[in-house]
């Protein structure tokens, strides 16, 4: 399976603090890949390096071509980034949030895509006119996911989708991620602290430690490796 996204020796800094130290990873076309690690390991910065919201060095390739520019440029190429904390527009309605998600497009398929999202998130129909800020935390996370999908991305990047949510809601979100991957062939790069559900969902994973890849491999192998579980995954 060919690589859709490749990071080669990527480094990133926040002022004097080096957050990434030569990170290399890849996301194959149509695959789900997880990035795991403790707080401060560099997980979120890895996604920010791809979307261009942090200064970086090294090489990032998307569909075999060098990736340059900031969030708008990467979005137009087909990369959707759902940041930590959901980031819905709380004063706008559900439908308005969805329309904003399609800002990179100029076609007439927006209504059809809202219907497509309602197929995955049935409550969108009945809540279309409701302000996003009045939704539950789980509904806001699902709206953020649906909004990202409105751009019809080739790669979806999710940053801590389980943050602050009840276990049942987390399982539903990861079920939807698997369904989108299986039905639409969507590639997913997910940063997640809940190693169990991430490894259940992803085909492969990278574990970061102080800005470096400490270990990587197939999720099934990482789940069975007792040393990896105890040292890096916390269970």
Account of the 3D structure:
With 235 residues, the protein is of the alpha/beta class. The chain has a domain at 87-159. The chain has 10 helices and 10 strands. The strands form 2 sheets. A 6-stranded mixed beta sheet has the order 6-7-8-3-9-10, sandwiched between helices. Strand 4 and strand 5 (65-66) form a beta hairpin. Helix 3 (94-101) runs parallel beside helix 6. The two termini are 31 Å apart.
Topology of this structure?
Layout: E1 3-14, E2 17-28, E3 32-36, H1 43-51, E4 56-62, E5 65-66, H2 71-77, E6 79-82, H3 94-101, H4 110-120, H5 123-127, H6 137-149, E7 155-159, H7 167-184, E8 187-191, H8 195-201, E9 204-209, E10 212-218, H9 219-224, H10 226-233
Parallel strand pairs: 3-8, 3-9, 6-7, 7-8
Antiparallel strand pairs: 1-2, 1-4, 4-5, 9-10
Protein name: ABC-type branched-chain amino acid transport system ATPase component
InterPro entries: AAA+_ATPase, ABC_transporter-like_ATP-bd, ABC_transporter-like_CS, BCAA_Transport_ATP-bd_LivF, P-loop_NTPase
GO molecular function: ATP binding; ATP hydrolysis activity; branched-chain amino acid transmembrane transporter activity
Radius of gyration: 17 Å
The largest sheet, given as strand count, sense and whether it forms a barrel, is:
6 strands, mixed
Our measurement of the CA-to-CA distance between the termini, rounded to an integer number of angstroms, reads 31 Å
Helix content: 25-40%
